[in-house]
Amino acid sequence: MVNPGKRMNILKTKVALTRKRTILPPEISRLHMDFALRWNDGHMGPRKFWKTCLPRLKFWNPAVPMIINRSSNNAGPATLSIYFRQAAAAAAAPTTPAGSAPKVNFVTPLAQQPHSSTTNECPAPLPEEGERVVTIEMKHQHSDAILQEFLQKTGATVLQPSPDELNEMRQAEDLKDRAAIDRSIMKKYIDDKRAEERLLARAREEAEAIRLANQ
Fold first, then answer.
1. Residue 46: CB atoms within 10 Å
2. Which of 64, 138, 155, 171 could form a disulfide with 78 if both were Cys (CB 3.0 to 4.6 A apart)?
3. DSSP characters for 55-80?
4. Would you say 143 and 53 are in contact if contact means Cβ atoms under 8 Å apart?
5. Are 138 and 41 within 8 A, CB to CB?
6. Among 36-40, 85-89, 135-139, 142-146, which stretch is predicted with the lowest mean pLDDT?
7. Under 8 Å between Cβ of 115 and 171
8. How buried is 30 (Cβ within 10 angstroms: 0-12 exposed, 13-18 middle, 19+ buried)?
9. CA 142, CA 66: separation in Å to the nearest integer?
10. End-to-end Cα spacing for the chain
11. Residue 117 gets which letter from DSSP?
């Protein structure tokens, strides 16, 4: 049987990815995030968006390159750049039939995707021919506000979870609550055991002191 802790982590990861299934429109060619390594001076929101929202976007849109450029300059800007194909290029992209759910794009080979940087080596590039870019100023914004502006400017489709996924979410929450109770019980057991060991050690020291005094 698989370790319950591992099962919990796998379930939590799956739930986190499926909770907000966001499909980007085909005219979006790439995304670029630029923010500081540390959260100070207004970079907390961008950092949280990167950690909580971007993995879901990448999971459901694997073909869209998402480049992260970070630096040690907290006084600098924090921007999210969204690159759109122009009308002619977007018309050539595969479309989704009316009335059907958006499909996930095919995956671009990893070797062809740009690389991210933690040393400010990959700033947002200029739009190429047939592209336009829309930016979001993320500095001093909450991650939820960044997400809402992102959804508004991209026109992304957010699909609701299925009944099975909702059931998995409930299971994950139940496991989380039970894990908190188990941790509390285990902590009390360990604390009590350590307190008992300290008492025994003190008693042994006192007994040894009495023995030495009576010699």
1. 28
2. 138
3. HHHHHH-TTS-EEEEEES-TTS--EE
4. yes
5. no
6. 85-89
7. no
8. buried
9. 20
10. 60
11. B
